[in-house]
Design a protein that fits this description.
The protein has helices at 51-63, 82-90, 107-116, 131-138, 143-155, 176-186, 213-221, 286-292, 297-307; strands at residues 19-23, 68-72, 97-102, 121-125, 162-167, 189-194, 226-228, 238-242, 248-252, 265-268, 273-275, 283-285. By secondary structure, the protein is an alpha/beta fold. It has a twelve-stranded mixed sheet. A hairpin with a 7-residue loop joins strand 11 (273-275) and strand 12 (283-285). Bound molecules: S-adenosylmethionine and iron/sulfur cluster.
Length: 334
């Protein structure tokens, strides 16, 4: 009888880390109001990891037992060479699932190639189906381009695509029902996310526009029957099946339903910082380790194993306070 080797990435609280989210760029072609300021200064090229360095870090993680990698950003599809990187990561032996989070702006032309690169699933951000509101929330995005991108991803054969919608009170909270109806017609899933206080934003007061997952759920239950799903996806979403459909509705509720106890993930920022918690600054500078020891994967792996010792127990988000975390979601690997 064969037994599985003991997990190599395990933190002080006994949580096994088998999932890494990798931000391959802090740049983006949108400027969503909850994610960024209007005028952003992005990192200079030399400060962010090269594509080769990102691939090396992914290889180290997979050799340490990570079996799921999500590529994100910023907008990952605006980084030149992203497709080759995805293809190379997709080939790593031991990786079970390569996934992508995107704003959908490039999917019309890239969905087919993404599929052939081995990307298994795609999350697409969509906060509203109203063109004017979409422009207000993304500042520069075009709704119809994203909708065509969603169709292109379906045509390319992606299944169980998930929409991500950040809901803000009195901006798009009335959109939730239409987004669920849209997800049902496309036979895809959707998660609603409570806004997290990452970085300073200039467009709104986060505490005033907080709209809890429970409020969204109560609104939705006037229009749909939500049946609790028993399956545990291992992630922060609590899922419900919309009766009479195959669409699952998830709620990611960092404020109202803390999910840290089952956290199985870490994040690699575009500049090569291994971030151990979305809501804390505990991190290890993997870029420095990589650049000091470019041919020594062992050093990189020891740094990653060592980092598990500083993974915090939980995040400390407080909407009433000024943000304690000054990095934006785009620089974080959301
Ligand atoms: N650009 C891609 C996109 O928008 O899908 C990937 C990166 S984006 C940072 C990843 C996810 O983080 C998106 O679903 C976005 O809606 C979410 N997000 C960004 N800022 C957030 C915030 N302050 N609170 C909660 N979610 C946020
Ligand atoms: Fe760009 Fe995604 Fe942030 Fe919107 S949420 S600004 S699309 S990184």
């Amino acid at each position: 009888m064969t037994t599985n080797p003991p997990p190599l990435l395990i933190d002080r609280f006994g949580r096994i880390v088998n999932y890494v989210r990798v931000s391959i760029t802090d740049r983006c072609d949108f400027r969503c109001i909850y994610c960024m300021g209007e005028d952003m200064t992005f990192l200079p090229r030399a400060q962010i990891l090269t594509l080769e360095e990102i691939e090396t870090v992914c290889r180290a993680f997979v050799e340490l037992g990570v079996d799921k990698i999500r590529i994100t950003g910023g907008e990952p599809m605006v980084r030149k060479g992203a497709m080759d990187l995805l293809r190379n990561i997709g080939r790593l032996q031991g990786l079970r699932e390569l996934t992508l989070t995107t704003n959908g702006s490039q999917l019309q032309t890239m969905a087919g190639e993404l599929k052939s690169c081995g990307v298994k699933r795609i999350n697409i951000s969509l906060d509203t189906l109203n063109e004017t509101l979409f422009k207000q929330m993304t500042r520069v995005g075009d709704l119809n381009t994203v909708l065509r991108g969603i169709d292109a991803a379906l045509e390319a054969g992606f299944r169980r695509i998930k929409l991500n919608a950040v809901i803000l009170k009195n901006r798009n909270h009335l959109e939730a029902g239409n987004l669920v109806a849209f997800a049902i017609t496309k036979n895809i899933d959707i998660s609603f996310i409570e806004e997290m206080p990452l970085g300073l934003v200039d467009s709104h007061d986060r505490a005033e526009e907080y709209y809890s997952s429970d409020s969204i759920r109560a609104d939705l239950e006037r229009r749909f029957t939500l049946l609790p799903c028993t399956e545990n996806t291992g992630g922060p979403s609590r899922y419900f099946l919309v009766a009479g459909s195959e669409t699952k509705v998830g709620f990611i509720s960092p404020h109202s339903h803390n999910f840290c106890g089952s956290c199985n993930r870490v994040r690699l920022t575009a500049e090569g910082r291994l971030l151990l918690c979305l809501g804390n600054e505990h991190s290890v500078d993997l870029k420095q380790v990589l650049r000091a020891n470019p041919t020594d994967l062992g050093k990189l792996k020891s740094a990653i194993v060592g980092a598990m010792q500083i993974k915090p127990e939980k995040h400390e988000f407080d909407l009433a306070e000024k943000p304690l975390i000054f990095r934006h979601m785009s620089a974080t690997g959301g």
